[in-house]
Design goal:
12-stranded antiparallel barrel, cell outer membrane, membrane, 22% helix, alpha+beta
Amino acid sequence: MFFTNPNNRRASCYALGTAMMGAMGLVSSATAADPTVAEQASEQAFDQEQFDQRFNQEKPERNWSLIVGGGGMYEPKYEGGGDFEISPVPFVLFTYGEWFELDPSGITVTPLRHEGFSLSGKVGYETGRNEDDSDRLRGLGDIDFAATVGAKAAYEWGPVELYAEVEQTIEGSESLIGTFGIGYSTPVTERLILGANAEAIVANDKHMEAYFGVDATQSAASGLPEYKPKAGLKRVDVSASATYLLTENWLVRGEAGLGVLTGDAADSPIVEEKLQPSVSLFVGYKF
């Protein structure tokens, strides 16, 4: 699987939800049989065969999962900004079976799963942007909060996931955004899961003009030169994460990422810094 930067936040929340659901599946299978053994194993190298045996033998009776928690993110105040802020992030993650998921970024329904391939639909939101978020944005006006609809196709090959998704904003910026990525996540001990992700994000003209463009009226009000960006690749993101299972119910997750604005987005007079680093830390509890 919250924010000034709508794209980063939705991506972070999606990654968070995915990692935490996977992590709680690991802890329920790895500690339920023998907590003492699991405690000892956490200090040793991960035994894949032992994990697989426990996982297959001790499937949970219920087909739903609920995690609540919170944390914070340290990131630029807006996409392209040079000033940073810490944002508190409360969250609720709920899944039912393998087809329904509710997380802080929206609702995802996955009607199709077959031999590693999955196809999902999602309803979410875009937080928009407030011109008061930074002096650089004064005179540019606000970008309204709006609903989004999207679809995602993914293929899992062991610990690797390849995916492509598209998302359309209804009203607001009327953005159409495409994301192509690869993710990797694997348990290295009975309690520790490491992950990495890389993705490229492309956007249509309306998104680029809303978030990186400056029209004549905005130029007169802000003092920035007029600028009309075109559709294309707007940024590349890479990240690494670690999820640690404190107990059978508690977990903590940290993530560090770096976004690099490219093309017309990077050249915008609104942008102060092309490199967009971020860090986050979350604590969750599974009921």
